[in-house]
Write a structure and sequence with these properties.
Layout (H helix, E strand, L loop, with lengths): L1 H4 L7 H10 L4 E2 H12 L7 H13 L3 E7 L4 E7 L1 H11 L11 H7 L6 H32 L7 H29 L12 H12 L7 H6 L2
Antiparallel strand pairs: 1-3, 2-3
Helix pairs in contact: 2-4, 6-7, 7-8
Amino acid sequence: MEYFQGMTSRPTSTSFALLGLLGLRPWTAYELVTQVRRNLYAIWPRSEAHLYAELKRIVERGHATAEVVDGVRRQRTRYAITAEGRAALREWLGTEPAAPLIEVEGILRLFLADQGSTEDLRAALESTARQASEIYARGAVLAEEVLNSGGPFPQRLHLTERVSAFYAAYLRLLIEWCDETLEEVETWPDTRDIGLTPQARERLERLVAAEEPGSSPRSQLAEP
């Protein structure tokens, strides 16, 4: 037990997300959490408590330093990446990423909807569409801000624009899916014992007949 207590945990993807931000410049813990919530929360949501704890572990691994500095009202801890941290980040960037995941509670509730009512399901879908629309609107405001001012790191906009484009497309798809599913639910007498409807069968048949992603001529040219 003492042996395991003395061990430093292995770096996680969240560790490297924080190291990547530290690679841009030193930040206080508050500034780092603010940057994560502004730029990464859409694709890598983590609680503030988790981020603060991970910062301490980064320092324990020797991947960053922590320095107490005077703030406006109180002292803060400022973090900076070390040479070991930069080397670990470069090594991680050369590894294969984990498989993509989707986490949408509204879809989970749809999956379990036969244990509830159609009213509950409609409310969940409407809430999911509304939430996605609100997130999209906030992203549009940030995009306009970047167009007007260039943002804090204009030299990195070729990277952040691609992330923003993906998330915007994902949100539009989610909103369209919610609208389509709400229309389908309106035809159900209940959430139970309906089985494969003609519309659902048609969608599955289109799915089976469609080309697999990556089979387009452009993707084939990219293959070794």
